[in-house]
Amino acid sequence: MKDRTDPIPDPLPPATPQPPLTGATPGAVPERAAEWLRGEGDSSDVVLSSRVRVARNLAGFPFMTTASRVDRTQILDLCRRRLLALPAGEGRRVLWVDLHTATHDERDLLVERQLISRNHAKGKLSVIGGTSGTGGATGSGGGADEPRGVAVVLPEERVSVMVNEEDHLRIQSIRSGLSLDACLADVDAVDDELERGLDFAFHKRFGYLTACPTNVGTGLRLSVMLHLPGLKMTGELEKASRAAHDMGLAVRGFYGEGSEAAGEFYQVSNQTTLGKTDALLLKEINDEIIPRLVGYERHARQKLLTDRRESTHDVVARALGTLRHARLLRSSESMELLGLVRLGISGGLLHDVTLEQVHALLLAVQPGHLQRAVGRTLNPHERRASRAELCRTRLGGS
Amino acid sequence: MRCQRCEREATIHEVIISQGKKQERHLCESCARQAGLSSDPHLPIAQLITGFMLGPTPPAAPTTAAGSESNPAKPAPTSKAIARCAGCGTTYAAFKESGLLGCPACYDAFADRLGPLIERAHEGACHHVGKFPRRALRDCRSLGDRDRVEVLLGSAREREERLESIRKSLAKAVRDEDYERAAMLRDELNRVTDLLQDAGNA
What we know:
- The complex is a heterodimer.
- Chain A is built from 13 helices and 10 strands.
- By secondary structure, chain A is α+β, with helices and mostly antiparallel strands.
- In chain A, strands 2-3-4-5-1-8-10-9 form an 8-stranded antiparallel sheet, with helices on one face.
- The N and C termini of chain A lie far apart (about 50 Å).
- About 20% of the residues of chain B have low confidence.
- Chain B is elongated.
- In chain B, a hairpin with a 2-residue loop joins strand 1 and strand 2.
- Chain B has a two-stranded antiparallel ribbon with strand order 1-2.
- Chain B has 9 helices and 2 strands.
- By secondary structure, chain B is mainly alpha-helical.
- Chains A and B meet through helix 4, helix 5, strand 6, strand 7 and helix 8 of A and helix 3, helix 4, helix 5, helix 6 and helix 7 of B.
């Protein structure tokens, strides 16, 4: 079996080459961002993207915590075979990446495109059982060279399947706007297809078994990425966050667990996975809870546009000005500025930039994408300089 | 009372009724440990007794789904195994430290302690509803494999309990006039009823 079937491609290769950056390979940066960043779909003024994932484990194998290297290799081979045979549909194909042999930069690109978790990139979750020492665990220790991989359905990059993350299989679909129902349908179809050839660990009482008991049952996690600058600026974010907690949701940053919410982008997701059917969980979150949070944010934005219109306009226009003229930009600063510009566009205060431009930049300013655009590894100072240059070029600055 | 093996005070008392005969054992803490009985005061008495009755068993392969082996690994009922999964050797202490279990059999090995924990984490829910691995179930049905059906869906009594819990939720939804939820629960009830009826015919 080949170690790698393909390099990571551009999701939608540009029809015409992009104007090259200084020192950049022409056409290397995708003209359009991954589909989940298109800014389309329901409530896309507030909901950046929706994501659904299910966790599955193979029966007859230990969980990753105690799986030996032989187990892991077998699990990987079994899953890879099934995934590469997945009927992806008309005009689509499945890309497989063996993460233990992928380069650091390739793994970064996959994380930034939200196709794998940060922990999966590092092979980090394999470590826990191997290092605890108290459990008699036979896990092989974990780390970057642990056998693991990801399958991505191209060209949309909506569906991806991580193999040997915390669970043997994590099937996910990510789409733009509030579209958890469509994501769930994507994931369901892949789950059914995989189940035709794989035996999943299933318990008569607890349902689908997962390494962590908080995922047991349906193994289903429904998340949406919300952009909440209005609540932040009106000082009501804390209140909204508490409300989300009270409604049984977890609130995290842009790149999931442990990450910061730069640019006021927040990921919220369900915490319970047992005792509710997929449909009921979907209904509660997609039709009840998220629309309520979207309502709070819209109300806050409305308040800003009526009561504090001038100062709000000032803040968003300054953000755009900085992006158009700065010479050095940190990643977190660029996210914050882009978040403000996004608020300005959706509030009708900024007219000469589009949501599409902003969304493409949200991805392009990430270190992995930036380095790919330039075609080499950059030190932190160089990254800041080329990030600023990228923003100036893309947003018509000087 | 004195320990049956030495002269120390007996603190562990076991009464086992097997085939109509009553057997008693009175041991001090150290003799009890040697005999494979734990003196952990927090240990559920039922587990202590099963541990005593069944004696040690060799570790079983971890599996719970149909397709590999028909019986899921059972916790090895020795004093050691009370806190250690026979399938993978993970201890309950290691689970508490990492939050992650070692293998599917851990769910049975630590069922007594995990049950309440899972209930707390899932807003009081203790039974899975929703999707089942359909192909695995279809395979058992076509093979007429009752054992495997039971591994996936539980015994006839457990299946009836599940239906009952859905019926209760449905009744509550109707009482609360949450008709949308009630409609979903009715669909779920029909789906599970069909599934379980088919399984019963295996």
